[in-house]
C-alpha cells in the first residue's frame, strides 16, 4: 500500500516545546507506514537553519540530533549519521526501488569532511541526488537512482527521490519512496 505522509516542521517544533515532563521531540512518521513496502514520504525541510532527523528503523522524525537517527535533511542537503557505531552508510545504484537488492560492502560510502560540508555528503557530493537547472533554478531528482542506506541498527533501506517541491511549488519539501531491503 502506498501512502503520502507530509510532516510539517512547525508541528515538530511545537511538539518539542510542550510540557517539560514530556522530553520526547520525536514524531512517528505514520503508525500505518510499513517500510517493508514501497511507501512515499514527504519531509518539510524548509527551515534554513534546522535539520530534520529521520530514524528509518524506528519510523520516527526528530528535530534533535541527540536521539537515534540515520539520515538528516535540511532543504536539499542530506547527511548520514557519522557519530553512530557503526556509522550510517549509503550506496548509489541505478534502477528502480522495486528491483534493488543488497549491494556488496565495497559499494557503501560514508560522508566525508569537506570545506563546504555538503560537498562531502554522499547524497550531495559530485554525484548529488538531484540535477539543478541554473536557468530556471529548479531542482529535479535524478531518474532511475536508488540509494541503499545501511542504518545504525544494521538494516538496509532503499530510497528513491520523487521531488523537491510541494503541490503549490514550495521548495524544500523532499519526497521519496522508501523500502526495506532484506539481506
Sequence-ordered SSE layout with sheet pairings:
Layout: E1 4-7, H1 9-16, E2 26-28, E3 39-44, E4 52-55, E5 60-62, E6 71-74, E7 77-80, E8 89-94, E9 130-133, E10 138-141, E11 145-150, E12 156-165, E13 171-181
How would you describe this protein?
This protein has one domain (about 5-180). About 5% of the residues lie in helices and about 40% in strands. It has one helix at about 10-15, and strands spanning about 5, 25-30, 40-45, 50-55, 60, 70-75, 75-80, 90-95, 130-135, 140, 145-150, 155-165, 170-180. The model is unreliable at about 1-30 and about 30-35 (pLDDT under 50). It comes from Pseudobacteriovorax antillogorgiicola. Pfam families: HmuY. InterPro entries: HmuY. This is HmuY protein.
**Secondary-structure element string:** EHEEEEEEEEEEEE
Count every helix, treating DSSP H or I runs of 4 or more residues as helices: 1
Distance from N terminus to C terminus (CA atoms, Å) equals 22 Å
Task: Give the strand order of the largest sheet, numbering strands 1, 2, ... along the chain.
Answer: 1-3-13-12-11-8
Principal-axis shape equals globular
Number of domains: 1
Instruction: Summarize the main sheet.
Output: 6 strands, mixed
Mean of pLDDT: 83
Class derived from helix and strand content: mainly beta
The proportion of residues forming helix, as a percent range, comes to under 10%
Given as residue ranges, the uncertain stretches (5+ residues, pLDDT < 50) are: 1-28, 30-34
The number of strands is: 13
Gyration radius, rounded: 16 Å
Question: How much strand?
Answer: 35-45%
Protein name: HmuY protein
Organism: Pseudobacteriovorax antillogorgiicola
Pfam families: HmuY
InterPro entries: HmuY (IPR025921)
